[in-house]
Structures are given as C-alpha cells and as structure tokens.
Design a protein that fits this description.
Shape: globular
Helix content: 10-25%
Distance between the termini: 13 Å
Structural class: alpha+beta
Strand content: 25-35%
Mean pLDDT: 92
Strand order of the largest sheet: 3-1-2-4
Order of helices and strands: EEHEHE
Largest sheet: 4 strands, mixed
Amino acid sequence: MIFKVYYQENRFEVPVRENTKSLYVEASTEREVRQHLKDRNYNIEFVQLLEGSHLEYEQASQNYEVESIN
C-alpha cells in the first residue's frame, strides 16, 4: 500500500499549510510508516492511504517518488 505523509520538517514547528511538505511511503500499515519515519525530526501531521483514482492522480505528479520500507 502507498501512504502519503504530510509533515513539517521540524518537530517543534507549528503546522502551517504553506510549510507542509509531503512524501510517499510504501508499507503495509500506517504504523510501519510512522515507525520508519520516527528517526527523522518530522512533525507528522497526517498519514493518508492512497488508493484508486486518488493514487493514480498522485502518480501522475512530477514529485511522485516512493520510499519503500524493507
């Protein structure tokens, strides 16, 4: 499954939409995604499962690059 993670680069930064970044992670569960990212200093706002037409839309983006958890 592919998850889209919305985050701030600094754990102590107040979430502001204009500063929110995103990345894509391939994992089995949201818990695996959060575990994978826990060493980074990210303030994770939201983890969203992508499927169907929403996933197709994101895949068409030039910024679509998936991190795989092994």
